Amino acid sequence: MTLPIVISCGEPAGIGPEVAAKAYQVLRSTVPMAYVGDPRHLPADTPVVGIDHPSEAANAMAQGLPVLTYGFAGHSTPGHPDPKDAQGVIDVIAACVDWVTQGHASAICTAPIHKKALQDGAQFAYPGHTEYLEALAGNGAHAVMMLASDALRVVPTTIHIPLADVPAALTPAVLRDTIAITHRDLQRQFQINAPRLAIAGLNPHAGEGGKMGRQEVDWIADLVRDMVAEGYDLTGPLPADTMFHAAARAKYDAAICMYHDQALIPIKTLAFDKGVNVTLGLPFIRTSPDHGTAFDIAGKGIADETSMVEALKLAQKMSKT
Fold it and tell me: Superfamily for 1-142+278-321?
């Protein structure tokens, strides 16, 4: 039996349903999938086949997008989230995780959510998808966000927190775990036997010997040396402003960055349409397109499905390793 990838619908007022439908048209002959959500949120011209279980998805793909129906309470209008839909968005993510962890699906691909809409409508307690998936995984899982493309892979050590909070949140234990999980999952899920990791500094010029910040000289450099002695292939801490040109990228398999924008700005510049969000450190495979809900273009039929297509393709590739 071919296991499908389950697609959580995400924020129904955003472009998630549209790019999922478009991705189905691109991949219908190669990637079995099942959309989990309310079929009313899909574009009107989407061919839909209702199914009751993911095991039915592969056979249904030729007729239409297989849909595991989850009825939503609200009436979604493109570009205008309805607070009544918030709990449905959250519940669908949990349902998709259940399908994967029970062995009925190979991976989960999540359409974008809107954190404020979830907080306003359902008191969502998590900063984002990554942290919620970590909680759903349980058993002490430490979720690590990776953004991946053919040009670059980046991992932010701290994620959805204000920049002012980064120095306190960036601890030796957190950085060590992030490096170790990235190394392990590059081996396990990406088949890179000896991952090369470049470690960014936190401060400009990687602190410039302590003149622009002390974290590098006080502990980051020592941590890197210790992990190299343990067998990890690491370089750093490196000035982030010289890590992302082509010659530098050729020297590593992933860049470990210290905070959200330090990681996401370079990959979104290099691969805005083709970047994929991958969550490492979980007992299941999760990918997502590397973009948000795009309320400004929702419902206009112009959303680019490329990142969703790449996310589904990568999920399928990872599930076969």
Answer: Isopropylmalate Dehydrogenase (3.40.718.10)
